[in-house]
Every structure is written in C-alpha cells, then in structure tokens.
Amino acid sequence: MKKCPHSAQREKILADAISPVATELRLLDASDLISLLRFEYYGNLADLVASAAELFFHPGTVNFGLGGNYALEWGGKPEVVLDLEIKPRGVTVYAQLTLAENHAGIEINHIAFEDPSSDPDENTAFLEKSLRQSRYSVKPPHALAS
Question: pTM (2 decimals)?
Fold first, then answer.
C-alpha cells in the first residue's frame, strides 16, 4: 500500500487489536508454519488462524488471506509472514502479519471502508471503533464475582 500520513496510526491501531492473535500464533512451531506455507496447505493455515482469532474476535473477523512467505536462512532466525483479511463491521483490511522469535509486526496493504468519510481522521477513528466492537468483551475478574 502506498503509505500516507495515516498509515502508521492505522497500523498501530491494527497491531494493538490483533496482538493477542499474533501471540497465539507465535506459540506454534515456526517449522510447522513454514511447512504449511511451503506445501500450500492453506486450509490448515486458515484453520490455525481462525482458531487463534476465535478466542478474541467474533467469527469471521480475522481470516487467513490465502498466502504468505517465510525466511529460513542457515544460522538465522525463522520468520513467517501470513496474509490476513481483517473484516470488522464496515471495513476490510488486507494486511501481512510477520511472526518472528521475539516479536510480531503488521503491515497494511489495503483498507476498504464500506462508507468512507471524506475526512481521513474519521476513517481512522471508525477503524479503531469497529475493531473494538468486533472483539469479545472480557469482564474484569472482580465483575465476575458479583
């Protein structure tokens, strides 16, 4: 995606929203993810992404985007890149999630708003709100005791 002044802010919003999904995916063995990518077992990857996402998001919000890449050099650390399609209400985000040993990162390739505003700040606020609404609400432990 061609970077604009709002790209970094939107990527941060998206990164904050899906960080628990990335954390779950990083629990998987990197060699397993690389094998699934190498042999194009995209259905299996879609199931893994869906399983990680279902803990935090409503069904269908975070999906595997049917592609990815990996880096596996002799003596280097493995890195896996998964294409994701994130679809909270009113917006679709096409992004690449990078998973590495000690971190994860997200890069937005394209955002499509169903009813975009002419004000980019309003679109950014809508993205944040829509992602927040697509997550499961978790009540604090003290609220559960009532």
Answer: 0.89
